[in-house]
Design goal:
The complex is a heterodimer of chains A (about 220) and B (about 240). Chain A has about 220 residues and is an alpha+beta fold. Chain A has four helices and nine strands; from the N terminus they run αβααββαββββββ. Chain B is an alpha+beta fold and about 240 residues long. In chain B, a hairpin with an 8-residue loop joins strand 8 and strand 9. The longest helix of chain B is centred in the last third of the chain and has 22 residues. Classes of the chains: A alpha+beta (about 220), B alpha+beta (about 240).
């Protein structure tokens, strides 16, 4: 019995030490543990309570100039076809997208199984956006917990990714706010994202996806052409 | 010849879990960069010039294949294509993440082409592994050293940048520990492949912690560059098919 207790104690110490920062707050005050592997449910699926995916990047409304630009886009230059990053707004909406969430000390890391198109997102939990940002494909993401919801604010995008499969462009003014929270006893994540871009979107657009928690491993999925 | 896989499997069974009671495995979470020059603090990487070491271990057919490769058209690391774990071991940066059941190493050179190495604890390799670029890794602690055993590679990647070939029999063992009062990670690599190598070769690299995150490094070749490379690669395939006939 004593041996079993020692094993349990040692296991708990291992868990605490293996990259998960020990937090001395009472359990009720701690943010939920959303670490793990998740996969987007299909748009045809309905969860208990009638919860379904809503919206799609294809439904965004562009400003006239951006719409004209979209019509002239060479669809063969889609970053997706060149194994390039397609940006979080488009990536998180895709059917069956699989992600792994790994909390680290000062960040929450989101790794995509389709690593070539999704890459790795680092959400900084202990700082705001830097004053001077070099535009990047994934932007600069900062997060904070509001109750059981992780709110992620991302700016600093370059203009290399598209907003949807139809070639909708965005500008460096793109701003994403994502709200991620566990639901149904932690078996699912509710993911809601709002995109605004004063230079390309006629109005902010929000879509919602549900991600199911999986007890499987992330597989290697590197884009090959 | 070293039967590293057998040794690795046995040690995996015996020491699948952590160090002795009362100890906890070290937490190496953070971003690391390959240490060079003064950053090495006097530590000397074994076989820093790795290419001649690998060539000396290649079987004749593998050496012939290496000599027949084209530096651009055959380089899987070109134009957003995967590198494979062997070349990732020379990657300048990586992010080390830990969770209770595994360690995740996200390679920073370009994660789209380098991918991720996931090191699982408390399990063995599955029997029927689908060959992949980065293989399947299991780890266990031996004192303060993390021992990682990786098999299940595909044969599409190269051992290093000169396109030294390997087969699906390739097997890598990494022994990872902190040195220099915790300022450096030392990784000893041992690579064997009974079908491509005459015997195992080893090398050591040191990595310095540089922070908690990595800068973004996205594969972003332009469309024209992409098409030119595809053209070269296709031409290369056609030439090879003529040789085979």
């Amino acid at each position: 019995m004593r041996s079993a207790s020692m094993v349990l104690t040692a296991l708990l110490m291992v868990s605490a030490q293996n990259g998960i920062t020990q937090d001395r707050r009472a359990p009720a005050e701690l943010p939920p543990d959303i670490s793990g592997v998740y996969q987007a449910i299909a748009n045809r699926d309905t969860l208990p309570g009638g919860l379904r995916n809503t919206g799609s990047p294809s439904d965004i409304v562009l400003l006239p100039a951006a719409e004209q630009q979209r019509k002239n886009v060479d669809l063969s230059a889609d970053p997706e076809k060149m194994c390039q990053n397609i940006g979080p707004f488009r990536m998180m909406a895709r059917d069956r997208t699989k992600i792994e969430i790994v909390p680290a000390r000062s960040t929450i890391v989101m790794l995509f199984e389709d690593i070539s198109h999704g890459n790795m997102r680092q959400i900084f939990m202990m700082r705001g956006h830097p004053e001077k940002l070099t535009p990047t494909w994934l932007g600069d993401s900062v997060g904070k917990w509001m109750g059981d919801t992780l709110v992620v604010d991302t700016i600093g995008f370059n203009d290399q990714t598209w907003l949807n499969d139809a070639g909708a462009q965005h500008s460096d003014a793109l701003h994403l706010v994502e709200r991620i929270r566990p639901i149904l006893g932690g078996r699912f994540l509710e993911y809601r994202v709002t995109a605004e871009d004063s230079k390309s979107l006629a109005k902010p657009y929000t879509y919602k996806r549900y991600y199911e928690r999986l007890e499987t491993d992330i597989m290697e999925d590197i884009c090959e052409q | 010849m070293m039967h590293a896989r057998t040794v690795g499997t046995l040690t995996g069974i015996l020491f699948a879990w952590t160090p002795a009671f009362g100890q906890t495995p070290p937490d190496w979470t953070g971003a690391y960069r390959l240490a060079v020059g003064q950053a090495l603090e006097g530590f000397e990487p074994l076989n820093l010039d790795l290419h001649p070491v690998i060539v000396a271990h290649l079987q004749p057919w593998a050496k012939t294949k290496m000599e027949a490769t084209d530096g651009v058209a055959d380089d899987t690391g070109q134009i957003c294509q995967p590198h494979g774990l062997f070349r990732n071991s020379q990657t300048a940066t990586f992010l080390w993440l830990a969770s209770p059941d595994k360690i995740v190493i996200a390679f920073g050179g370009n994660i789209a082409t380098s991918g991720v190495q996931r090191i699982y604890f408390n399990r063995q390799h599955p029997r029927n592994l689908l060959p992949t670029w980065n293989g399947h890794s299991v780890g266990h602690w031996e004192g303060d050293t993390l021992v990682v055993d990786t098999i299940g590679f595909n044969d599409k990647s190269w051992l290093q940048v000169a396109m030294e070939p390997h087969t699906e029999e390739a097997h890598m063992i990494q022994r990872i520990r902190q040195v220099g009062d915790g300022r450096l990670l030392e990784i000893q690599y041992a690579v064997e492949d009974r079908k491509a190598l005459t015997s195992a070769y080893t090398y050591t690299r040191y990595y310095r912690k540089i922070g908690e995150s990595l800068p973004e490094n996205v594969c972003s070749q332009g469309l024209q560059e992409w098409r030119e490379w595809r053209g070269k690669a296709l031409q290369r395939l056609i030439e090879r098919s003529r040789i085979v006939r």
